[in-house]
Design brief:
Elements: H1 2-6, H2 9-25, H3 30-49, H4 58-67, H5 81-93, H6 97-118, H7 124-138, H8 143-160, H9 164-177, H10 197-213, H11 215-231, H12 234-249, H13 253-272, H14 274-280, H15 283-300, H16 312-315, H17 318-328, H18 334-350
């Protein structure tokens, strides 16, 4: 698989983004750097917006768009209402699915760009981390969840700014596109100040033990089954089904070990730069706590397969964190930081296609 990736357009894009990251770490005008980041985000939106029969969930999303009419909007039960309404509104403008994909892509990628601008980390490394760690795995097919991810990232920044009502609106909008976004409500409980490393280590260790023990799925099944028997509400029955399905699906041990090592390594490097980064941007402590929560949730859901995808709503803050790490470095050590980030992103790129790789290769555009 590594040989296939290295010969693909995906590696070509990585090489270009990484090269600009190295180039700009050596200097350059701020206006030029910002123009590059804007252009890079535009390119990524076009890359996923102009694909055809490439990426995950192609058939199901295209069928939904083709079959959506006024009479079916409130009678489509396998997709979230906000996303169905979005399909219908775009279809009023054009019945062309490529037009829909372009609008969907620019909205999803634009939300990430908005968050990066809001956090004042408009850097080449932001684009590189976004591309290797999120764009390939999520933005090449998960049409509704990528909008929820962008809304969620903005909501997390709004929580930090104490704009709780506006953040709640963003979370509810994200929920309307993908119900899993409700997990973002946990952002309100995350402390803004630095968490003691000993306490954080104990918390991570406890979550790992609970996750590996397999006790959490059993507790969830009992709670959801009891709730459904008492209320007969569909939401409890649906959640019970997903817990059972997720546990049966599980995660491969190799994938789990790599994911754990990667997350812990990322967190260790981020924590190492805490003092310098926090001095330049007080947002850093909060985002580091958000990332720690994501690692905890990942450990807890190790036996719940697809439920681990929920952690993406929080790990996505690393797009901003790595930018803050770069800003924290002196002019002399920034090239070293870029080299570190570039290497980590390369390893991530090689592991972006372990499942459903046939859906990505070769990349096909609407003109192919």
């Amino acid at each position: 698989m590594a040989a296939v990736v290295l010969k693909s357009v995906y590696f070509g894009i990585y090489a270009v983004l990484a090269s600009f990251g190295v180039l700009f770490s050596a200097g350059g005008r701020e206006k030029t750097k910002k123009a590059y980041v804007f252009t890079a985000f535009i390119f990524l939106a076009l890359f996923t917006g102009l694909r055809w029969e490439t990426g995950t969930d192609w058939d199901s999303y295209k069928q939904l768009f083709d079959n959506t009419v006024a009479d079916t909007v409130f009678h489509t039960y396998h997709f979230d209402l906000g996303y169905v309404v979005f399909n219908y509104l775009v279809k009023l403008v054009s019945p062309d699915y490529t037009v829909f994909l372009l609008i969907n892509s620019f909205l999803a990628v634009g939300l990430v760009y908005y968050a990066v601008v809001k956090a004042e980390t408009l850097l080449a490394v932001n684009v590189l981390v976004f591309y290797t760690n999120y764009f390939i795995a999520h933005y090449m097919g998960s049409n509704r969840r990528i909008i929820a991810l962008g809304l969620g990232l903005s909501a997390i920044l709004l929580v930090y700014e104490n704009k709780k009502v506006k953040a709640f609106i963003f979370i509810m909008l994200a929920f309307s596109f993908h119900r899993s976004a409700l997990v973002l409500l946990l952002a309100y409980l995350i402390p803004r100040e630095k968490t003691n490393i000993k306490k954080m280590s104990v918390m991570l260790g406890a979550c790992a033990v609970i996750g590996v023990s397999g006790v959490l799925p059993e507790i969830l099944r009992i709670m959801l089954s009891t709730a459904y028997n008492a209320t007969h509400l569909y939401i409890f029955n649906s959640a019970l089904f997903h817990v059972t399905y997720a546990q049966a699906e599980g995660l491969g041990i190799q994938h789990f070990i790599f994911a754990c090592i990667k997350r812990l390594a990322f967190f260790a490097v981020m924590y190492f730069f805490y003092r310098q980064a926090q001095q330049k941007n007080r947002l850093y402590a909060y985002l580091l706590n958000v990332y720690a929560l994501a690692v905890c949730l990942y450990f807890l859901t190790v036996d719940l397969g697809t439920f681990s995808i929920l952690t993406t709503y929080f790990t996505i803050v690393e797009i901003i964190i790595w930018g803050l790490v770069y800003q924290a470095g002196s002019r002399q050590n920034r090239p070293v930081i870029v080299a570190l980030i570039t290497g980590l992103c390369f390893v991530q790129l090689l592991n972006d296609f372990p499942v459903f790789s046939e859906m990505y290769f070769p990349y096909r555009s609407v003109w192919t």
